[in-house]
Amino acid sequence: MKVKTILVSQPEPKIENSPYFDLQEKQKVKIDFRPFIHVEGVPAKEIRQQKVDLNNYTAIILTSRNAVDHFFRVAEEMRFKVPDTLKYFCQSEAVAYYLQKYVVYRKRKIYVGKRTFAELSPLIKKYKDEKFLLPTTDKLKPEVPEILNGLKISWKEAIFYKTVISDLSDLENVTYDILVFFSPSGIESLFHNFPDFKQNNTRIAVFGNTTIKAVEEKGLRVDIAAPTPETPSMTMALEKYIEKVNKGK
User: Tell me: the pLDDT tens digits for 3-22?
Assistant: First the structure.
């Protein structure tokens, strides 16, 4: 069956040159964006109940842009003046770059990993005498605490924001040829909103092994998977599939 419509379970890209827009134009398909999950900040009062005093930490571990936003939000709510001496350990360059929204980059001690949390760990180990705070989500990957415990450092995890299921009730009678998912939380949201969801002719595209597993556990069929050596990005995987099924167009 040909593909004409795609729903991506993420916010619409803010950049004009997003590969999704190129895909839409090149393949003459309609792509809609809709976050199936969203992030909500945990109030400072609840963070205090987690026995967190920001004065006690000399270093912050930041795994995402959400972590950056919510660390500075909480600091403001707690009227905590972030000291210039604070060290920032950022999981990737994208996170470190985003940090510039809040701090003067050249005046701060910022350490940047390559991409994965495991790649950041040697940098953290180098500064094992620091007291580390990990501001995080309620959906933290289990490998993160495992790695930090293995480093034998002083660290604390604190939930600064939560992943919440979005209300999708307005999509009840809308169908798409392809649904695109990036996390198990997106699949959870699909079934929370539509408990009787039947895949039928809908193709499902997924990114990452944990998402594939979540789809299969629900008895659904994975039609498009990324990343692969041939299609490292979701847009590449979609394009390859669309070209295959739409070629008789």
Answer: 999 999 999 998 888 999 99
